[in-house]
Amino acid sequence: MSRRTGSSQRWRARQERDIYVEQATRAGWRSRAVFKLEQIQAKERLLKPGSVCVDLGSAPGSWSQLAAKLVSPGGRGVAVDLLPMETIPGVEFLQADFTVPETVAKLKQMLGGRHADLVMSDMAPNISGNRVMDQPRTMALLTDALVFATEVLKPNGDFLVKAFQGEVIDVFTRELRRHFATVKTIKPKASRPESREIYLLARTYGM
Ligand code: SAM
C-alpha cells in the first residue's frame, strides 16, 4: 500500500467514525466545521439578525451557510476562498487569494461602504512540517486577517480567527489585545482533540 493510499484510507475511516460528519451530512451542512462555529455561537452570540459578516477561507461553505441563517433578516455575508464555493443565498462570494492586495480591495467594494460586525477566518496556511518556514507563514496569514479586520470592522465589532497552538499564539494574542477589549482562546468540542487548531476570539474592536 502506498503511503498516500494509506493516509487517505485512514482519513476516510476517521470521517466515517466521526459523528459530526454524519450529522452535518444529514442536516445539509457542507462541512463538519459548521459545528465549531455553532458551538462558539451558542456561547458567544456573535451573529445576530441584521449583522454583516465576512468569512475568510469560506469553502466549502458551512460557516457561511450558518452565518446567512443567523444574520437573516436584514444581514449579509461576504466570503472569499482560493477554492470555488457553491452559491449561498445572502452571501456574496469571491474566489481569490486573500493575501493579495487586490482581493482585499475587492472585498471592501463588496461590503459597499458598510462596516462588518464580525470578521471570521477559518484559513490555514499550507503547513510543510518545517517550523522555521511554517511559523512565519502562519503569523503572516494571521496578521493579514487582523489588518483587514481593523480596516472593515465597526467600532465594537468582533474578530474570530483560527490559529495553531505554538509560539506565534502569544505574540499574536498580544497584538489582538492592542485593538480589542477582550481576547480569549476557544477549543470547540467539534475541533478534533488531536489537532493543534484553536480559535482566538477578539471582541469589541476599538476599545
Ligand atoms: N469554514 C469553512 C467551512 O465551514 O466550510 C472551512 C474552511 S477550510 C478549513 C479553510 C479554507 O481556507 C480552505 O478552503 C482554503 O482554500 C482557504 N484558504 C487558505 N488560504 C487562503 C487564502 N490565502 N485565501 C483564501 N482562502 C484561503
Task: Please specify the SSE layout and strand pairing.
Blueprint: H1 3-17, H2 19-27, H3 34-44, E1 52-56, H4 62-71, E2 76-81, E3 91-95, H5 101-111, E4 116-121, H6 131-152, E5 153-164, H7 167-179, E6 180-186, E7 197-205
Parallel strand pairs: 1-2, 1-4, 2-3, 4-5
Antiparallel strand pairs: 5-7, 6-7
The structure holds S-adenosylmethionine.
Unreliable stretches: none
What coarse outline follows from CA principal-axis ratios? globular
Mean of the pLDDT scores? 93
Largest sheet: 7 strands, mixed
Radius of gyration: 17 Å
The side-by-side strand order for the widest beta sheet comes to: 3-2-1-4-5-7-6
* Number of alpha- plus pi-helical segments: 7
What share of the residues does DSSP label as strand, in percent? 15-25%
Helix content: 40-55%
Structural class by sheet pairing and helices: alpha/beta
For the termini, the CA-CA separation is: 56 Å
